[in-house]
Write a structure and sequence with these properties.
The complex is a heterodimer of chains A (306) and B (221). With 306 residues, chain A is α+β, with helices and mostly antiparallel strands. Chain A has helices at 3-23, 25-57, 75-86, 99-110, 113-117, 139-150, 163-204, 206-214, 219-262, 274-302; strands at residues 65-69, 91-97, 127-132, 155-160. Chain A has two domains: 3-58 and 166-302, no CATH class; 64-161, Alpha-Beta Plaits (2-Layer Sandwich). In chain B, the strands form two sheets. In chain B, strands 6-7-8-3-9-10 form a six-stranded mixed β-sheet, sandwiched between helices. Chain B has a four-stranded antiparallel β-sheet with strand order 2-1-4-5, covered by helices on one side. Classes of the chains: A alpha+beta (306), B alpha/beta (221).
């Protein structure tokens, strides 16, 4: 067989399989919708996490450590310690808040002004607010810095203000794995759904397959149209999933922007993007093809003319 | 062309369809396999087309022992055999032209060539102009002729037919047999299984009579 005839034949079956699909549009749409929803679920989670990571990207820069000095430290000594810390490679900035200043701030923001007046002396220590360099603004980097600062003389306590951000990031990292797990399981589901649909399709076309085999068709030849059907199921399901996610993103986009605005953030929701969308379409098409291949290979082999 | 040498066929059900059948069919022969139903006619055709394999003995088709043909090679082997069925086995949801084209599509013949050869085959069976019809729109005799066109379109050297006139009235049956005779005249080897002895009597052809899984009688040309 020459290459032209081979390509011709593939093109024919590819187009022919659309014809078959069009013969039973309701059944096709049902299967496609099931696949679409199965693909949309992990995709929604993916979009959510993608946006969460984006929203938290700015928070990484906000890592700060509060260094409380012992009560007896003098303002001069406080400035010396500040200078010592500032000279470190992993420190970007050190802000000095002396005790009276800290008290004033606390009075202003806490609303405990009257209660503070009842105290004999200022309960607040001299404080240094240390900002690590961007390179050191990681969980490991800040932890190391925290240990180093604790060892500095006259330092009483070091508090990581943004520990909760790190915890959140850890949760997001965990969720990312969950997304992959869900994607893997639902991908398997897609292959099985398509495989089962193709199996039924093959049962319905048993007579046709028998005749084809009798006039000399190989299993591969009889299988080909079913592979294309599987491809279309996957492609259609993937396209539907992208549509569903796009609608979902559009629907929650306005409230998210409003919420972000209330928090003083310019954050706005982003969709899947062209690249990820192409990956989704390609992988769901491939899964459809694969499911069809497994089902068709198995069931067509079992059909023999009698 | 075909050689059966002490062939036995026992089905998993235990029924012994063939019990030591031997005969030889030469290239270009027109041969009728006759005998009452259950005599083994269909089993012989199935062994020729490799739908079944012999339990014992040796079947040779086109100078090749079928025992040497592996499962993967069966499709290619079958492309050298045209098969006609009693119930024609046409695909009812495809037009006549697609049905006839099937063996050519499977063999990977270019599309332009396919159209030409499909029309030639339909012309040979007198159905030119029915390409776009569905098989169900045709009469029983016409449907059987579509089946024959499908069997001969790829120009196989061997044609086998299982009760091809079983569903047809006598006039149509004679017409279909004449059609086979014409293909035989141009050198195609043809084996037709039929229980219709009266029909066979009208043709000057070789006859192998089967009874109880054995060759009961053989009339040479």
């Amino acid at each position: 067989m020459n290459v032209g005839a081979y390509v011709d034949r593939h093109a024919q079956t590819l187009v022919g399989s659309i014809g078959r699909v069009a013969d039973a549009p309701v059944a096709f749409l049902m299967t496609m919708t099931v696949i679409g929803i199965a693909v949309a679920l992990p995709l929604c989670l993916f979009v959510f996490l993608q946006n969460a990571r984006q929203a938290m990207a700015g928070w990484n820069d906000a890592f700060e450590l509060s260094v409380y000095l012992t009560k007896s430290t003098t303002p001069t000594r406080t400035r010396e310690v500040a200078a010592q810390i500032r000279s470190r490679d992993d420190v970007a900035n050190v802000r000095v808040i002396l005790a009276p200043q800290a008290l004033a701030e606390f009075r202003r923001y806490s609303g405990f002004g009257d209660a503070l007046d009842a105290l004999q002396e200022n309960p607040l220590p001299n404080t240094l607010v240390v900002t690590p360099t961007p390179a050191a603004s990681t969980a490991a980097g800040t932890a190391a810095l925290r240990r180093a600062l604790r060892a500095v003389p006259d330092v009483d306590q070091v508090q990581l203000d943004t520990q909760w951000v790190q915890r959140l990031i850890a949760i997001v990292d965990l969720l990312r794995r969950v997304v992959w797990l869900a994607a893997g399981l639902l991908g398997l589901g897609v292959a099985l759904i398509v495989g089962n649909t193709i199996r039924l399709d093959i049962q319905n076309r048993r007579a046709e397959i028998e005749v084809m085999k009798l006039v000399g068709a190989s299993d591969g030849f009889a299988r080909r149209p079913f592979l294309y059907s599987g491809f279309w199921y996957g492609f259609g399901g993937g396209a539907l999933a992208l549509l569903l996610v796009a609608v979902a993103v559009a629907w929650v986009s306005a409230p998210v922007s409003r919420l972000a605005h209330l928090y003083g953030s310019g954050f706005s929701l982003t969709g899947i993007g062209v690249e990820a969308g192409a990956v989704v379409l390609l992988s769901s098409s491939l899964l459809g093809w694969l499911g069809a291949w497994i089902a068709a290979t198995q069931h067509i082999r079992a059909i023999n003319p009698s | 062309m075909i050689h059966f040498d002490q062939v036995y066929k026992r089905y998993p059900s235990g029924r012994e369809a063939l019990a030591g059948v031997s005969f030889r069919i030469e290239r270009g022969d027109l041969t009728f396999l006759t005998g009452h139903s259950g005599a083994g006619k269909s089993s012989i055709l199935k062994l020729i087309a490799l739908i079944e394999r012999p339990t014992r003995g040796r079947v040779t088709v086109a100078d090749r022992s079928t025992a040497t043909i592996r499962p993967r090679a069966i499709p290619l082997f079958r492309r050298g055999i045209g098969v006609v069925f009693q119930d024609n086995k046409l695909l009812v949801d495809r037009p006549v032209a697609d049905n006839v084209a099937l063996p050519l599509i499977i063999a990977g013949v270019p599309r332009k060539e396919i159209d030409k050869r499909v029309r030639a085959a339909l012309d040979q069976v007198g159905l030119l102009g029915k390409e776009r019809n569905r098989p169900t729109e045709l009469s029983a005799g016409e449907q059987q002729r579509v089946g024959i066109a499908r069997a001969v379109v790829a120009k196989p050297p061997l044609l086998i037919a299982d009760e091809p006139t079983g569903n047809l009235d006598p006039d149509l049956a004679v017409e279909i047999m004449r059609l086979f005779k014409r293909f035989s005249d141009v050198g195609v080897t043809i084996v037709i299984a039929t229980h219709d002895v009266h029909l066979v009597d009208r043709f000057d052809a070789r006859r192998i009579v089967l009874g109880d899984g054995r060759v009961a009688a053989e009339t040479p040309r």
